[in-house]
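ok, trying the design again with the full structure, not the truncated one.
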């Protein structure tokens, strides 16, 4: 019972290894001359360095910026009921904290 399972696993492993060896062999071959890039005489020098700078094409609208900053308009912020005025200084603070003044 274990032997057939072991044999199938070995077959799959050998297939994977042989496939990997074939792919490595294909990568080692030089490309065909017809596929090689031939530099043009009038090539643009900005494109030769291989760097393409990303530029924003459209500005994000004010509505979308506020939507991201504030959130969904139907999102209800829960009201805090534990805010009290300090008897010493008169400022507001949470009930379980002490006055900092």
């Amino acid at each position: 019972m274990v032997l057939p399972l072991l044999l199938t696993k070995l077959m799959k492993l050998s297939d994977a290894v042989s496939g990997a060896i074939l792919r490595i062999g294909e990568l080692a071959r030089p490309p065909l001359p017809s596929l090689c890039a031939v530099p043009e005489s009038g090539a643009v020098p900005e494109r030769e360095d291989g760097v393409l700078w990303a530029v924003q094409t459209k500005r994000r609208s004010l509505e979308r910026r506020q939507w991201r900053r504030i959130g969904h308009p139907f999102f209800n912020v829960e009201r805090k009921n534990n805010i009290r005025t300090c008897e010493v200084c008169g400022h507001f603070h949470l009930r379980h904290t002490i006055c900092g003044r």
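Keeping the full-length input from now on. Strands lie at 83-85, 92-94.
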